[in-house]
Amino acid sequence: MFCYQCQETAGCTGCTKFGVCGKSPDLARMQDLLIYVTKGLSAVTTTLRAQGESIPAHVNHYVTINLFTTITNANFDDEIFYQRVFETLNLKNELLAKVADKTNLPEAALWTATDREELDEKSTKVGILTTENEDIRSLRELIIYGLKGLAAYMKHANELKYDNEEISAFMQKALASTLNDQLTIDELIALTLETGKVGVDGMALLDAANTGTYGNPEITKVNIGVGTRPGILVSGHDLRDLEQLLEQSKDSGVDIYTHSEMLPAHYYPAFKKYNHFVGNYGNAWWKQKEEFESFNGPILMTTNCVVPPAPSYKNRLFTTGAAGVPGCKHIDRDENGYKDFSEIIELAKTCQAPTEIEKGEIIGGFAHAQVFALADQVVEAVKSGAIRKFFVMAGCDGRQKARNYYTDFAKALPKDTVILTAGCAKYKYNKLDLGDINGIPRVLDAGQCNDSYSLALIALKLKEAFELTDINELPLAFNIAWYEQKAVIVLLSLLYLGVKNIHLGPTLPAFLSPNVAKVLVENFGISGIGTVEDDIKLFLE
Ligand code: FS2
Ligand code: SF4
């Protein structure tokens, strides 16, 4: 196996024996094969579009879910990958019959198979290392990881009946382009930046879907203690899953809690009507082993990040959507998108209430509309010097000790600075008492990593309020923590929006070859992190 798509990759170079995340070599090769056949399908759809044919939405959605399923920590179930590869080949073969001229199609578009042995054999021959030139490989993977992140946004938007054929067409064209040996380094760099542009479109679509369906997030205090009734813990990012579970459990005597990236659901007006939606339990994804244990009740994983479960709670862990764990019950949608969560609710009734691990409240809900409502106050605080600088510290949390940098950084920031955050990175500092500036909290949480778009809108609004022409003239610094591929599309989107001098940590991606890293440093001023002391000095210069 060879995988280097996430920040925790072994030795900062690549997982070759077993994934640090828990991905086995067999799972790794089947994920490689799924990406390969999805590229083949994309080459066919791209050719058909050029022929003037339209591609049905279910094909677009199939590409999207395939990409999402291979995101780090989303799905550990080998069987799902065999099933998806066969289904993808069937879809592709149907469409291939409509292609008028097949001579220019790549091998991935023409390859097919009917039994598992053929899949097993092929799966060892289509991995990342089949691209020999390390710069081409680096750019191809950078594009693919960005597309995986974008696929996650699209899937959530699609669940809320928001869709965009142009975004899907681009995703498939870009995927197919990673099979094209004729593309030069410069053309791949251009495609990388175009991925960032379409990433902004995808984030805007998801933002419209979430706020159009559930209202604009508003300032909210979230309880982090527990009640006396049994609970169900919901993790991941899918708001539609949460909504269905809230609706189905409302009169059951069971409480609903969020974990990790589901915390921002509390900020939406639409979910406030549920009295049994009582709080957030625990921290970021990587603490789930201990926190799922002490929660005592069933857990629903709606997306990544799943950690292969301990036997003590495995029978209480359920997955849905792109998530999957062998041996855990997976709940599928029906053709109308309905999911029957009754088994989880019935199990919860037999469980003890969660064990309390902390008490108190955290505050969030500072997505774009809420911050715009406070714009005068914020602008005034900057003009009067009460706020010296904003620090965008969005992204992911993870297991590595080096990530304590972000807690130390937040604590060491001068009191006249404000942190803008989104994603599970926030758990490194959202329970510290960092105070406020004239009533504006010093940590403004816009939501999930999926809501990073809000931070871009806030930056653009500040640019307008201060009548600046360049976003980089703002008193705003970017110190982003990354872990998986959704952070990659956020990064590419920020580059497209013209943001310079982003600091990325705790380590730079292993998939950036020295030459590709050099391009990012020279053109965008991207850098890693140093010590807290040195970095704060540098940022405040
Ligand atoms: Fe956190 Fe994990 Fe959100 Fe990432 S829950 S690292 O996949 O998506 O942020
Ligand atoms: Fe390794 Fe990350 Fe790939 Fe898992 S996703 S195998 S930890 S690089």
UniProtKB/TrEMBL annotation:
Q: Spell out the molecular function terms from Gene Ontology.
A: 4 iron, 4 sulfur cluster binding; hydroxylamine reductase activity; metal ion binding; peroxidase activity
Organism of provenance: Herbinix luporum
Q: Which PANTHER family match?
A: HYDROXYLAMINE REDUCTASE
Q: Cofactor note from UniProt? A: Binds 1 [4Fe-4S] cluster. Binds 1 hybrid [4Fe-2O-2S] cluster.
- Protein name from the UniProt record: Hydroxylamine reductase
Can the keyword Mitochondrion be found in this entry's annotation?
Answer: no
Q: Alphabetically, which GO biological process terms does the record hold?
A: response to hydrogen peroxide
The family database entries (Gene3D superfamilies) matched by this protein are listed as:
1.20.1270.20, 3.40.50.2030
Family, per entry? Belongs to the HCP family.
InterPro entries for this protein: HCP/CODH (IPR004137), Hydroxylam_reduct (IPR010048), Prismane-like_a/b-sand (IPR016099), Prismane-like_sf (IPR011254), Prismane_a-bundle (IPR016100)
This chain's function reads: Catalyzes the reduction of hydroxylamine to form NH(3) and H(2)O.
